[in-house]
Amino acid sequence: MTQFRNIVILTGAGVSAESGIDTFRDGGGLWERHRVDDVATPEAFARDPGLVQRFYDMRRAAIQEKVPNAAHMALARLDQAWPKKGMGRTVTLVTQNVDDLHERAGASVIHMHGEHLKAWCTLCDTRSHWRGPLIDGPPCPACGARALRPDVVWFGEMPYHMDRIHAALRSADLFVSIGTSGAVYPAAGFVQSARDLGARTLELNLEPSQGSRWFHETRLGPASELVPEWVEEMLAG
C-alpha cells in the first residue's frame, strides 16, 4: 500500500446505515415514506414549505441520537494517521451524507450535499449551525430575517465544494468509494474522473453499485466490517 500517497474517499448512505440512518430512498422512490419529489426539491419547498420543514426537523432531531459506527471510526483513524506515514501524504474525505457522524468520529470531511445541522438564510446567504426545529420560522442569527431553510442540497441544486473536490481528484493516487449507489451525479462520476487521471479505484459496498464496472476492485460486505479491514491494510503497508 505504500505506493499510494494521496487518497480521495467518497462515502454515501451505506456508511451511516449501520448507525440507524436510513438510506436516501428505497426501490419505490420513497424516503421515509415520503415521495422524494415532495421533500427534496426546491419546487417542493416552494409548494409546501411546512411539509419540507417538518420532514427535515424530524431528521435533524433523529441524527443527533445516532452514534458513529466502526466504519466512521476507522476512516477517522486513517484521516489522522495517514499523513504521519510520510511527507506529502493526504486523505480527502468527501461525503454525500448530511449527518455529522464522520466529524463526531474525529475526521475532517467535505460535505458536498450540505449538513442537517446547519440552516441557510436565503435572504443574506449566511449558513448557521442549527440543532433545533425550523418549522416555526425562527429568525436568522445573522440578519434577523425569517428566511431559514435546511442547508442541504436538493435535486436540481448544485453540490457544494466542487472545485475543491476536483482538485483533490486530480492529485489522487487512490480513489475509494464506500457505501454509495453510483446513481446520483456528479458524485457517481468521480470514479471515472479519478481513473482517467491515473488513480487506482476501489469500491467497498454492500452490493455492486451502478458504477462498479469503473472500479479496479470491488469488495462486498457491511461497511462496519470492510472499512476497518481496509484501513488496517493501508496503515500496515
What portion of residues is helical? 25-40%
Computed structural class: alpha/beta
> Which runs of at least 5 residues are low in confidence (pLDDT < 50)?
none
Indicate the CATH topology of the largest domain. Rossmann fold
Rounded to an integer, what's the Rg over CA atoms? 18 Å
Distinct helical segment count: 9
Which sequence of SSEs, written as H and E, runs from N to C? EHEEHHHHEHEEEEHEHEEH
Identify the strand order in the major beta sheet.
5-4-1-9-10-11
Distance between the termini: 5 Å
Task: Kindly state the number of beta strands.
Answer: 11
Largest sheet: 6 strands, parallel
Mean pLDDT: 93
Beta content:
15-25%
CATH architecture designation of the largest domain: 3-Layer(aba) Sandwich
- Integer count of domains: 2
Which oligomeric state applies?
single chain
Descriptive report:
By secondary structure, the protein is of the alpha/beta class. It has 2 domains: 1-21 and 68-113 and 158-237, 3-Layer(aba) Sandwich (Rossmann fold); 23-65 and 124-152, SIR2/SIRT2 'Small Domain'. 32% of the residues lie in helices and 21% in strands. The strands form 3 sheets. The protein has a 6-stranded parallel beta sheet with strand order 5-4-1-9-10-11, sandwiched between helices. Helix 6 (101-105) links the parallel strand 4 and strand 5. Helix 5 runs parallel beside helix 9. The mean pLDDT is 93.
